[in-house]
Design a protein that fits this description.
Elements (H helix, E strand, L loop, with lengths): L1 E5 L2 E9 L9 E11 L5 E12 L4 E7 L7 E2 L4 E10 L3 E12 L4 E12 L6
Antiparallel strand pairs: 1-2, 2-3, 3-7, 4-5, 4-6, 4-8, 8-9
Amino acid sequence: MSTAVTSGIRVHVKSEFRPDRSSSGRYLFTYTIRVSNEGNHPAKLVSRHWIITDAQGGKEEVVGDGVVGQQPRLKSGEAFEYTSFCILKTPHGSMRGTYHMVRDDGASFAAEIPAFTLVTPGALN
C-alpha cells in the first residue's frame, strides 16, 4: 500500500496480482485507489497521467480524462474509490503518476499518485 497527500488530496493505492487472469508473458494486476479530499475546498479530478515501468525498465505513459469514465468532484471530507487494472509483460513492475485537479476557483494542481509495486508472488525472492 502507498499513500501521498498533495494540497489536501490524499491518494491511497493498493495492488493485487490476478493469477486467474494471467499467463506466461501477460501478468494482470488490479489496483484500487481511494482519492480523499482532506482540504477545505472542493476539487475535481480532471485527468490522469501514469508512468508504468516493467522489470526490464520499459516505460509506458498513459494520459487520459478522469478515471474509469468519471471526473469526480470531491467536496471537503468526501472520497472516491475505484478499481482498475494493468497488464505487464514481466512478473513485476511499478506505477506512479499524477491526477490533474481543479478547484472551484479555477486553481489547478497535480496530486501525486504514489509509486506502488506490481509484483507476482515470489518474483522478487
